[in-house]
Design brief:
Blueprint: H1 2-29, H2 34-60, H3 67-95, H4 97-113, H5 115-122, H6 124-135, H7 139-165
Helix pairs in contact: 1-2, 1-3, 2-3, 2-7, 3-7, 4-6, 5-6
Organism: Algoriphagus iocasae
Protein name: DUF4199 domain-containing protein
Keywords: Membrane, Transmembrane, Transmembrane helix
């Protein structure tokens, strides 16, 4: 079983650490690093999944990769990225509550600036409910949101990359 997950551990941890570094560095340059960090996640997750699957195929499985093996290795990879990202962001925001307050106020301001557009598309009640949920946001909400947006594209890219790299023995 370890042969299946050696590459997943390696590239999942690497991707998670890169995601944390991204969040930390972006927090110095932008008052709300969450949006740009999500975009960085859309880049790092597929690269990490691809490298994990390619490494597994070439170095652990004699050049073969079934779809099921690809999905298993990919799942562990993107889940590790999400878990490390969640824990790191949660710890960082817990240690820096001022950064969390800046993120929260930035999201409230963005929502207020877009009020007319949002109300015209989804209605006043939806806007008010969204504004209330953002005002009640806690640190774990920011971390969970980041983790979810590592898992969703991770699943999508794992399926595609597993199909592309699939090679079964004859």
């Amino acid at each position: 079983m370890n042969k299946y997950f050696k590459s997943a551990y390696l590239f999942g941890i690497l991707g998670g650490v890169l995601g944390l570094i991204s969040f930390f560095v972006l927090s110095f340059f932008k008052e709300d690093p969450t949006t740009l960090n999500l975009i960085f996640g859309y880049v790092i997750v597929p690269i990490s999944v691809y490298l994990a699957l390619k490494y597994f195929k070439d170095y652990s499985n004699q050049g073969y990769l079934s779809f099921a093996e690809g999905m298993s290795v990919g799942f562990v990879t993107y889940m590790l990225i999400a878990i490390i990202s969640f824990l790191g962001i949660w710890v960082l925001l817990s240690l820096e509550p001022d950064l969390f307050e800046i993120i929260k106020s930035s999201k409230i301001n963005t929502l207020a600036e877009s009020k007319e557009t949002i109300v015209s598309q989804v209605g006043e009640n939806s806007f008010l409910a969204t504004m209330e949920s953002v005002k009640n946001m806690v640190i774990s909400d920011v971390a969970i949101n980041d983790a979810i947006w590592k898992i969703v594209p991770g699943l999508f890219f794992t399926i595609i990359i597993s199909i592309i790299l699939r090679k079964n023995p004859n």
